[in-house]
């Protein structure tokens, strides 16, 4: 299976639209950092994520002191303020794997250094293409995304909804 690294935004989106089981059924080894997991504060969301960690559907990478120092000194991510975001890009580079993010600045930095980057809309596309959800369910999830995350590309989502109808 192919590795794919996710940030906090995509996890929150997938939780909010109720597609966590389908997300972890994709044909990917989904990974993240311990810092992303620490950002999931609401207990019900954390319990959901912990279920998939225990089931070995989500791999969480711990960081040594050396790793943390490398992330701090990772010049490529200087435009990012949050250590969590830097850790996700750094680990994607180290593992040479695609990254999932809903953060525009993270996407720009990752793409500039050659990392394949996708977001929450791509996740729904993959769920459809993998026959994990029906077209009707995809429309419902896309509509939920529009309601729960105003930062996503509204026109692109509406275009996908219309194409699916």
Architecture overview:
α5 packs across α6, α8 (120-129) packs antiparallel against α9 (135-148) and α9 (135-148) packs antiparallel against α10 (154-164). The chain is built from 10 helices and 5 strands. It has 165 residues and is an alpha/beta fold. The N and C termini lie far apart (32 Å). It has a single domain (2-120), classed as 5'-nuclease (Rossmann fold, 3-Layer(aba) Sandwich).
CATH superfamily: 5'-nuclease
Question: What is the first-to-last residue Cα distance?
Answer: 32 Å
What's the helix count?
10
- CATH fold category name: Rossmann fold
In the sheet with the most strands, the strands line up as 3-2-1-4-5
Sheet of most strands:
5 strands, parallel
How many strands appear in the DSSP assignment?
A: 5
The sequence of SSEs as H and E is EHHEHHEHHEHEHHH
Structural class: alpha/beta
Output the CATH class name: Alpha Beta
Would you identify the regions where 5 or more consecutive residues have pLDDT less than 50?
none
Tell me which CATH architecture applies here: 3-Layer(aba) Sandwich
Share of helix among residues? 55-70%
Q: Tell me the fraction of residues in β-strands, as a range.
A: 5-15%
Shape by Cα distribution: globular
Rg over CA atoms: 16 Å
Mean pLDDT: 95
Domain count, please report it: 1
